[in-house]
Design goal:
The structure is a single chain. By secondary structure, the protein is mainly α. The protein is built from 2 helices and no strands. The two termini are 17 Å apart. The relative contact order is 0.21.
């Protein structure tokens, strides 16, 4: 996977995770268990994006 593709994936994961967290908070009004499940999934999604930022910082840049 190229560095530019990894950077795009990082931001998609972070923003989609934060959106899922917000959606889960609003879902808690109707169904608490489902809301917490969506919040947890979103938090894992965003945390994966943050972890990939660290992975990207450790990779060598392949600029000619």
């Amino acid at each position: 996977m190229s560095n530019s593709a990894l950077e795009k994936l990082v931001w998609v994961l972070i923003y989609s995770g934060l959106l899922m967290v917000c959606l889960g908070v609003f879902m808690m009004r109707q169904d608490s268990a489902l809301g917490w499940g969506v919040v947890a999934a979103g938090a894992i999604d965003a945390a994966t994006g943050v972890a990939l930022i660290w992975v990207r910082s450790r990779r060598a840049s392949h600029t000619p």
